[in-house]
Amino acid sequence: GAVVSQHPSWVICKSGTSVKIECRSLDFQATTMFWYRQFPKQSLMLMATSNEGSKATYEQGVEKDKFLINHASLTLSTLTVTSAHPEDSSFYICSARDFSGTSGRAARYEQYFGPGTRLTVT
Amino acid sequence: AQTVTQSQPEMSVQEAETVTLSCTYDTSESDYYLFWYKQPPSRQMILVIRQEAYKQQNATENRFSVNFQKAAKSFSLKISDSQLGDAAMYFCAYRSAGYGGSQGNLIFGKGTKLSVKP
């Protein structure tokens, strides 16, 4: 089956520093990747959608200069939280979709999720 | 804009019993997909079941089945023979049938926390 990995799984950083989260599709080509944020006991909130080789599309209210997204290849997308502050502490989840169908016909309907990254800003 | 509503913040079921989680949605589209995702304490999102709107037959996956009522815009999940491992947050999600760019983003409900009592 299609697997999405995220690294790191847990990161603690000091206020004012930047942190990068990597999202990789391990066995399929992810033409589109999604980044979500989840607060405790809440649902997933879509932050942005990125297509390989083009700029990410951010949801309303998400600061694109603070949450930098790069989708440089068909298997890797990164989210960089710049000048992090305690209010950025959250659980970040990436998700990938295979529009090309390289992981099978059914994959065109599926969105595969990474295990998430817990960010704590002190 | 499409919306997904889960009206049950929390549900509880006895082990081996059956429980039904409710989900309603609003859309003007005719072609779309509906999903139920499970998020256990590990927080890994796991696809439970998928329903394609153009298919009238309700989807089933082992102990999990759905009751898809397109006219009523209702999509409930039934879990039979509940097991302790079923305890988790369950999210109902909607997706347009389009594929390109930001089309077809998953729209999630607020979730239902399911507890399973031994």
Short description:
The complex is a heterodimer of chains A (122) and B (118). Chain A is mainly β and 122 residues long.
Commentary on this structure:
- The complex is a heterodimer of chains A (122) and B (118).
- In chain A, strand 7 (67-73) and strand 8 (76-81) form a beta hairpin.
- The radius of gyration of chain A is 14 Å and the shape is globular.
- In chain A, strands 2, 4, 5, 6, 9, 10 and 11 form a 7-stranded mixed β-sheet that branches.
- Chain A contains no helices and 11 strands.
- In chain A, 0% of the residues lie in helices and 49% in strands.
- The model of chain A is unreliable at 103-107 (pLDDT under 50).
- Chain A has 122 residues and is mostly beta strands.
- Chain A has strands spanning 4-7, 10-13, 19-25, 32-38, 44-51, 57-58, 67-73, 76-81, 90-97, 112-113, 117-121.
- Chain B is mostly beta strands and 118 residues long.
- In chain B, 0% of the residues lie in helices and 51% in strands.
- Chain B has strands at 3-5, 10-14, 19-21, 24-26, 32-39, 46-52, 60-61, 64-69, 74-79, 88-96, 107-108, 112-117.
- In chain B, strands 2, 5, 6, 10, 11 and 12 form a 6-stranded mixed β-sheet that branches. In chain B, strands 3-9-8-7 form a 4-stranded antiparallel β-sheet, with no helix packed on it. A two-stranded antiparallel sheet of chain B has the order 1-4.
- The N and C termini of chain B lie far apart (41 Å).
- The model of chain B has no long low-confidence stretch (mean pLDDT 93).
- The interface between A and B is medium-sized, with 23 and 22 residues.
